[in-house]
């Protein structure tokens, strides 16, 4: 109830962000229900059902990452004197963030259930037929326990990620207050992210080789949710997770590269800012890099001889969720970066630093990120598409 009252005080931008989180969770819930319907309607195709369920994990990961990024900039979880008076101090703000995110995601999943049920029963009174019946798995009753379990996954995962993100938000500032002259430590997730990405590429290559060695047609392209086997889909999921884990380390690496050699004041300022804010913006930029790699890999696959089948509606929906969540998460991370650097920027202006120099520093940070993340996305895309087009 307290979280709902705080929502009434939100600005339009914050309400739009909450609505976007709810919409993303609802779309993921719709995809999960579609995977369940397919499994119930086709018990003789466990491999295809597993592939559809694994495809849902990619938009789920994007939705969870965006929910965590949105929670870090949520006005209701910022320390305020009024919250301290009602017992919501900094130690209990993660709980408030988790409840607020869970409410938004639950509302989205409830709407997804209503929409999915209405489509299965037929909006005009007649049940769907043909491709629509195959898509929705109509004619079979869904297990209620399975429906409740699947629809509980997006709210619980997003709430847990929001609580962790809110809890970790105060750690960089606390370290800076304790040691203002100590260089920011490197994030520990880069080696783990590289390892997970390498495992994902290995799993995808192994699965593609096994599928190609069997008698029959070549490995199909991802025109539908079950176009690829579970191994290839699981490999792509691990690649995405690895890039998200490696994101903070990559941003920190960009800051180190700016300070190589004998940097001037502009390079020192830009590099220091990237290293300090890498834990805040790294995961969102890692997800954006994964989306760019996926887009390049898909373009490579569909540009191969023979092309690929037309993408189905569920594939389009999942792709839209991933792209929207990645772009919105990057914009939210940029807003958080600007808010975190506001005091430092004001201090530089007071000592006489011109606005042109500050804009040049921002442009230099963007150029450094593009110089590192763009080639990485291209390399991952080439390695991911290679086992499927050779």
UniProtKB/TrEMBL annotation:
Coiled-coil-forming residues are none
- UniProt keyword annotations, A-Z: Membrane, Transmembrane, Transmembrane helix
Q: Which domain of life is it from?
A: Bacteria
**Residues annotated as transmembrane:** 20-41, 53-71, 91-116, 145-165, 236-260, 281-302, 314-337, 358-381
Q: What is the official name of this protein in its record?
A: Integral membrane protein
State the organism's lineage: Bacteria, Bacillati, Actinomycetota, Actinomycetes, Kitasatosporales
